[in-house]
Design a protein that fits this description.
alpha/beta, 32% helix, nine-stranded mixed beta sheet, seven-stranded parallel beta sheet, 18 strands
Length: 501
């Protein structure tokens, strides 16, 4: 076909934004949406995609991936090429990955290293959060440079992985203060790292060396306590907080209660925690059990996924990520005799949209508008790339998906596009299938066929002070939280304490 790949018309679909569903054609040119309307007449040579009786949705935004992550002595199987290939095959057209410096490492140096890995491989747009794994004046200065010069507007603190990534409460408090001053969003991995470290020793001493020990040494109350503690610390400095991978009732309830008190906190459940549960860690097959090891762990209470989905559907939790961080069998096997040496991580970036549609929309818990919100729009708003991303509107990026809500597919490691040999959703049949994925106005996935170009993705800078996050903060800052009491000075006797010699 002699059509111009930079001109594209999606015709006759039911367009879904977070606030409404409407029938329209969508005309894209040079990577942007140029027109949205009924019966559009495109220029000659335009590629036409028939979306009759199908949904047209904004491309998914995954705010939580770990591609090519060096971790526990090995490197995640999905690099930035395999990971972004899998993403577009599942209808996700942008992700925000994490730069994670070692303790004492320059944040700026780590950022440049990660960006070098990504730029030559990504098949779709991406951005970066940056982790704060230690604290000093240098870290604060580099956070400022990252926000002003590198387009970073979010920083993550680990409350777990003691002696590796974990920061203590004082360090976290200072990091929250810095985020607030810079207009960045503070994020936390919320687990009590000290309790986990001691619990792991206890399990191993009892002879519990298998994957089940991973969950037992970090039960959900450990996640709940850390979530509450992070919220309290952030609230002391009026810093908005984002809790990544909310995996338990306890953590979700801590967020819900805090929001009811007026705290500005966002909760991110992930595809794994919404689509499966932690009973698999007790499976008799070691490989199967180890394949489900991640942190915080999947919870063994089988009612947890539905509980989290109900909160997500009703805006008590707010958006979905994946924490995609994959390791093959031989990598997981580093912990065959000691669960603390099993690399933590699971897949999700390819299957997230189908899992959320199956468990959320097909089940009747949420409508297509809410689906778009939790898979794309809310992430765009929180991370300040809306309306560039996350909406079907004139001037927005042409990142779009033709979506069949009635079609089904069965998930399997044999057919997925990840570089990993295991899939935690193995055998799950999902309603909701991406038929065509469009990134930057180009078709990158079409009815099972990938057409991606390594290195074609763009780094998307994200400005600070996102209005979705900071509008209430600005108003609260105008109102004094503390006021001095004016009173007459005390003029009575004062006891004298003898000084020691």
């Amino acid at each position: 076909m002699a059509s111009d790949e930079r001109r594209l018309l999606i015709k006759g679909g039911n367009c879904v934004n977070c606030d409404r569903v409407f029938r329209a054609d969508v005309y894209c040119e040079r990577g942007l949406i140029r027109e949205v309307g009924v019966d559009l007449k495109p220029p000659e040579g335009t590629t036409v995609i028939d979306a009759t009786d199908k949904f047209v949705i904004p491309g998914g935004i995954d705010p939580h991936t770990h591609f090519q992550l060096p971790f526990m002595g090995t490197v995640a199987a999905d690099d930035f090429y395999a990971g972004t290939r899998a993403a577009v095959a599942g209808g996700t057209t942008m992700m925000i990955d994490f730069v994670i410096p070692a303790k004492g490492e320059s944040l700026l140096s780590a950022y440049e290293k990660w960006k070098g890995w990504a730029d030559e491989k990504v098949c779709c747009d991406y951005s970066f959060h940056v982790a704060v794994t230690w604290w000093a004046d240098q870290v604060a200065k580099e956070m400022e440079i990252l926000t002003k010069e590198k387009g970073v507007n979010s920083f993550k603190m680990f409350m777990a992985y003691r002696d590796v990534f974990m920061v203590n409460d004082e360090e976290m408090y200072h990091a929250f203060e810095c985020c607030k001053r810079l207009g960045a969003l503070a994020q936390v991995h919320a687990e009590n790292g000290d309790i986990i470290a001691e619990g792991a020793k206890k399990m191993l001493a009892m002879g519990i060396t298998g994957p089940e020990g991973h969950e037992m040494c970090r039960p959900e109350e450990v996640e709940g306590e850390a979530t509450h503690r992070a919220i309290v610390l952030a609230n002391q400095v009026n810093c908005p907080l984002y809790v990544v991978h909310v995996m338990s009732r306890s953590a979700a309830d801590a967020i819900l209660r805090a929001r009811q008190r007026g705290c500005i906190v966002f909760g991110e459940p992930i595809a794994a925690g919404l689509g499966t549960d932690g009973t698999h860690q007790w499976h008799k097959c070691w490989r199967h059990a180890a394949g489900h090891v991640m942190g915080p762990p999947l919870r063994p209470d089988p009612s947890t996924p539905e509980y989290l989905m109900n909160l997500l559907a009703n805006d008590d939790l707010h958006l979905t990520g994946t924490d995609n961080c994959t390791f093959n069998a031989d990598q997981k096997a580093m912990g065959k005799d000691d669960f603390t040496k099993i690399p933590n991580g699971v897949n999700g970036v390819e299957d997230r949209l189908s899992v959320i549609w199956e468990k959320g929309v097909h089940s009747g818990k949420m409508d297509p508008c809410r689906f778009v919100s939790v898979t794309s729009t809310t992430a765009a708003k929180i991370f300040n790339i809306y309306p560039q991303k996350g909406v079907i509107a004139v001037g927005s990026d042409a990142d779009l998906v033709v979506w069949d809500g009635n079609a089904t597919r069965t998930i399997s490691a044999k057919t997925h596009h990840h570089a990993v040999d295991f899939n935690i959703f193995e055998g799950m049949t999902c309603h909701g299938v991406p038929l065509v994925t469009i990134s930057q106005g180009r078709v990158v996935y079409d009815h099972g066929e990938l057409n991606v170009v390594k290195g074609s993705g763009r780094y998307i800078p994200r400005p600070v002070f996102a209005s979705h996050v900071y509008s209430r903060v600005h108003q609260r800052d105008k109102i004094p939280r503390y006021e001095k009491v004016e009173r007459e000075p005390y003029m009575g006797p004062v006891i004298q304490i003898p000084t020691s010699k």
